[in-house]
Amino acid sequence: MKYKCYMWLSVFFLALSIGMTSSAVAAAEAPTLWSLRIANDSFFAQDRGYTSGVQLEVHPADSPFSFYLGQDLFTPEENSTRVPPEGQHPYGAWLYLGGDYRKQLKPNLLLTSSLILGTTGERALGEEAQDVTHTVLKFKEYDGWDSQISERWGWILRLKLDGRLPVWEHENGVGLDLVGHLEGRGGNIYVDTAVGATLRVGLNIPELETASSPQTETSLYFSAGYDIRAVDRNVFLEGVRRSDYDVIPQRTYDRFRAGVHWRRDPYRVDLDFYIPQEYFTTQDLNCRYGVLRLSYWF
Fold first, then answer.
1. C-alpha separations of 35 from 80, 107, 274, 297 in Å
2. Predicted local confidence at residue 29, as pLDDT
3. Cα–Cα distance between 63 and 259 in angstroms, integer?
4. How many angstroms separate the CA atoms of 232 and 261, rounded?
5. DSSP H helical segments within the chain, as ranges?
6. What's the CATH code, domain 2-25+33-297?
7. Across the chain, which distance is largest between two alpha carbons, in Å?
8. What's the per-residue H, E or C state across 67-82?
9. Distance between CA 297 and CA 96 in Å, rounded?
10. pLDDT tens digits for 53-94?
């Protein structure tokens, strides 16, 4: 079984390489923005719910396309039981390959469409990834991965509309703006929709970008946001089969976030903290996490 898992992982990497090669040709030797996104609840000294996420992103310069390969892990807080105790998150993993396409509808209106393909279950290598990480960091191993959400080949189609409202800008580059968000996801993994807004204040705040490109000025700004999500399907809570350990999702929940963002190309650093409301009806403990994104033009 593990051999098959690694075989499918190789297929993912091959598909990503093909996408990257075609984009590189289209970019005509322009530089590429490489980003490593690391999400983890250890930013809040906890280990539960959405506990870890790693994503490698490739943004060819002056191209509306970007590609990424990633993995998300979900666990309960209790690590020594074969099945999560009542009121705690099911075990789950999601290994995926995706791409985004951005289109400028108006100067301050951006539409992003995404297609994501992946797998849940043992093929997603969640247990292996967590065991390696916990061994390196000398954390306790989790005993309940045999109860994880079952295997399913999955797809997600995502549409997101962002609208920017410039509020104030000084001639020295310091400014304030408000970005509204409307998002919908469909497929056999998630079906949900969200609406929210982000307030940004700082130096040289970037506009909504169809295509990433190197910039000469330094950018430093802070963000604070809020969104509310309506949920119809979430297989990492509801499970794939009837035999899966499952919980009942909250059909609506809200989420607060705050972050700091720095750009001095070729380097970029983004750090965001997320504080969501309870994801499911019997949830005992809040699941907070942070997301660190490190980017470099190469």
1. 35, 26, 20, 9
2. 56
3. 26
4. 33
5. 2-26, 126-137, 235-238
6. 2.40.128.140
7. 62
8. EEEEEEEEECCCCCCC
9. 24
10. 999 999 999 999 999 999 999 999 888 899 999 889 999 999
**Which one-letter amino acid corresponds to residue 251?**
R
The token pair that represents 223 in the structure block: 């963000």
In whole angstroms, give the CA distance from residue 247 to residue 279. Answer: 10
Spell out where the chain has E strands: 32-40, 49-60, 65-75, 92-106, 109-120, 153-169, 174-187, 190-203, 219-234, 252-264, 267-276, 289-297
Report the SS3 class of residue 173.
coil
For 96, phi then psi, to 5°, come to -145, 160
CA dist 92 and 142 (Å) reads 12
Residue found by looking up tokens 């997101």 in the block: 160
Asked whether 143 and 80 are in contact (CB, 8 A), the reply is: yes
DSSP 132-154: HHHHHHTPPPPS-GGGSPPP-EE
Q: And the tokens for 179? A: 């970005």
In this model, does residue 13 exceed pLDDT 90?
Answer: no
Tokens 């984009």 belong to which residue? 23
